[in-house]
Specification:
The complex is a heterotrimer of chains A (344), B (322) and C (281).
Chain A lengths: L1 E12 L2 E12 L3 E5 L6 H9 L6 E6 L2 E2 L10 E4 L11 H11 L4 H14 L15 H14 L4 E5 L7 H18 L2 E6 L2 H7 L2 E6 L2 E6 L1 H6 L4 H6 L6 E5 L2 E5 L16 E13 L3 E8 L8 E6 L11 E7 L4 E4 L5 E2 L6
Chain B lengths: L4 H17 L5 H31 L16 H8 L1 H32 L6 H13 L2 H11 L6 H8 L22 H29 L3 H9 L4 H29 L3 H6 L11 H11 L3 H9 L1 H21 L1
Chain C lengths: L1 H34 L3 H4 L16 H9 L2 H33 L1 H14 L4 H14 L6 H7 L1 H17 L3 H9 L4 H12 L1 H17 L2 H6 L8 H8 L1 E2 L2 E2 L1 H36 L1
Antiparallel strand pairs in C: 1-2
Classes of the chains: A alpha+beta (344), B mainly alpha (322), C mainly alpha (281).
Chain lengths: 344, 322, 281
Amino acid sequence: MAVVEVKGLKKHFGNVKAVNGVDLSIQKGELLVILGPSGCGKTTLMRMIAGLERPTAGDILIGDQVVTHLPPRARKIAMVFQSYALYPHMSIFDNIAFPLKARREPKDAIRQKVEWASSILGIQHLLDRKPRQLSGGERQRVALARALVKEPDVMLLDEPLSNLDAKLRASARDELQRFQRQLGITTIFVTHDQIEAMGLGDRIAVMYAGQVRQIGTPQEIYHEPADTFVATFLGSPPMNLFERNDCLVGFRPENFLPPGVLQPEDKVTAFPFHVGRVEYLGSDRLIYGTIEGAAEQNKTISKLPSTITVDIEPDKVYEFVVQAKDLKFFDKNTGKRIEPQPLD
Amino acid sequence: MQKSAAEETAVYRATTHSKTQFLFDNERFLGTIFLAPAVIYIIALVGIPFIMAITFSVTDVTVGDTSLDFVGLQNFRRIIQTPQFQRALKDTFLFTIVAQIFVAILANILAVILAQEFRGKWIARMLIMLPWATPISLGTIGWLWIFDSKFSPIDWILQYFGLLGTPDAIFGASKHLNFLGREELAMASVILVHIWRMLPLAAVILLAGLTSIDSDLIDQAQVDGASFWRIHFQIRLPLIFPIMSIALLFGLIFTFSDMVVAFVLTRGGPVYYTQVLPLWAWFKGIDGGSLSEGAAIALFLFPLLLVVAILMLRVARRSEVR
Amino acid sequence: MWAVKNAIKRTLLYITVMIFCFFSASPFLIMLINTFKQDADLYRPQNNPFIYNFPPTLENLELLFQRTNYMIFVRNSLIVGVLVVLITLVIAIPGAYSLARLTGQWGERAGIGIFLVYLVPPTLLFIPMFRIVAALNLNNTIWSLVLVYPTISIPFCTWLLMGFFKSIPRDLEEAAMVDGYSHLMAFLKVVMPLSLSGIIAVIVFTFTLTLHEFVYAMTFISDSTQRTISVGVPIELVRGDVFFWQSLLAAAVIVALPVGFVYNLFLDRLVAGFTMGAVKG
């Protein structure tokens, strides 16, 4: 059953088409990540779902009710802002209790729910403090607790981890996923960080220029990209692309291997790889170079795990191979994925 | 996409119900009722009087005869022809510009001082703010005594040190300077009192500007080896330039249109040598009952105010770019 | 070397502070001294004006409080001040919020427009205003001032608060709206408490303005019992050419000291209010 449904949603600011026709449907208990570079319209999309922005066209349904023209408070949503938006003049307790007071819940119920939410997030000891006395990680938990107490149909998270330092971000991500699974709250998570998206999402919607380019599980998005944007936006380093026979051929750096690594019975395609530079990163080796004979000057990268110890030296040409199943083909003009083509 | 009938009504219901129940979420509605009182107030009590002022100035309305007979630019013509007018115009400009220059310089120094920490700051601050806390007409009374023709404490001090009242004294042989009875001294007195009353507010506004400056910038300049005054002129001043120019323009308008100091101190005298335009307008329009002529005199203020307004807009726009 | 330089700097600082204090406060010192002077002491040019040549007296204060309308002026000023502050807050706060958040581009222009209204001074308007007040039958009452003073305070205060509201992160209001409040309630519960400095600045500014205002007060009111201190004291205590000098000066200093004290208490708030509203906004 779909908890949130978005139909033909558009938002234009003057000439800027921030969101230009988006259809989505989010299932109960699912964690959907909206992934895209900054300016792709992902935050606008979320703000429309929250009711903070009026769509130019299209409809939003939450729990089978059309909410397109309803203000945020009439939608059963909760939201965590990138800045956390904790009310600086209220204690942590009052911050968390704020949504409950809006519903005029009785005092006992408020206290009980605030304690419940703060115990889930381990912030019971902070309830008397003011937001400015808290660390970034603690503020993020308070913001989550404030979203939780509402017991929303859907929880919206706008890059909630981007204000944390790298170390904290990993543990916060882990925690976020654990408690989302545990409580089964339908969640929409907006981010520009592909690692967050891959690690957290049940499904990922990749957005670019106001449109959803592909929606699917992390595996689908990574291994079967729908177009060249998705192919190059995900993966680090991104997918190698070069033109051959009037179409674009792509493969991931980790699938571009020196000969002898693969089993002899694997069906492979070989490319002459002119190595330019080799970078040792401990667990991996990145080899930068070009494929000779490709239509134009191209930059190609191979990523070899440290378990492959073949000697690779700069300024030499090697025969690198890609398994046939790892070759992806895209239309040269539209960038859309097409059927595999024969390579001579 | 084809919508089912049920969906169609659901959409319809949602929209109609939002219009009534969620009135206080509607930005346009809220924006209008929030702004309406201010706009209505200003139109009713600034817009309408302003139009009336223009109307009066081209009629012959007086307190006694309230009928509005159109006389064209006759009032303006008659005013320009009086010797008082040129004098008043000159006085108004002189008084405004000189006072503003002094206020600008002194307020800068004062703001820099008040931004520092020192012992007794609290009481010093209170003393410095006093002229602003007192109604200006009352503060001016204090000065009226200080400038008194017979009992002036300044005269007494000068006499005490032999600078006044003896045959070869610097300030003359007369026992009294008679500040308000002499043309130049009267003007200087009016200007001095104005500086005195404008200084605290100007300093507070500049202080606000100074405290908003990121202290990292000042630290950086100090590390770079800049002296105090170099920091002040090359870093602080440019940064507070927008707010300073707004304060300055405010001050210009304020001083330009003020009549209280001159009214209490000199009543425009001696003769009419300190009669600034606003004061003259008051004497003509209210005291003399010639509403039309008074309105016409006051309107001479308007072109200058307009210039200031345009300058102000420029500054405001430039500071937005920042 | 640095120590000497520092000591010179400190000394210079204190000297400058004292010069400013002297310039600002000396009229009040003279007022205070003269408040308790006997006529015989005051009106002899040879007497040192800074000391009591004759014993101090309370007669001048008695005259001020018992035989003039001074207390009535003070009361009128307070009534007018408080009411005008309230009217200004009620009108300027929502107006400023509307311009800062609700009206978009259009509001930006309206904001500049309202700011420009502040440039139309009382001296330009007092003549027609005199007629309007007369037509409303409010002349000779303090209500005329209560009606008219907000025209001076509203434009500036709206502009100042607009800057203040703009400096509050929008996220906070949006969070409150997501948390279940209407836009109106989000404004009242989140924006208002965070704007306290701005509101204090507006209160101080408006109250000062009503206390200082002279032109309208002198134009509209000729009845002694309806006058405010700003006009009442200089007009009523000057009878023809007879000045009740000590009482006149006492009247000024009695207002100055408490008001100055209270302002000083709020000065940091005021500076903060100006900083957020006018400088950063």
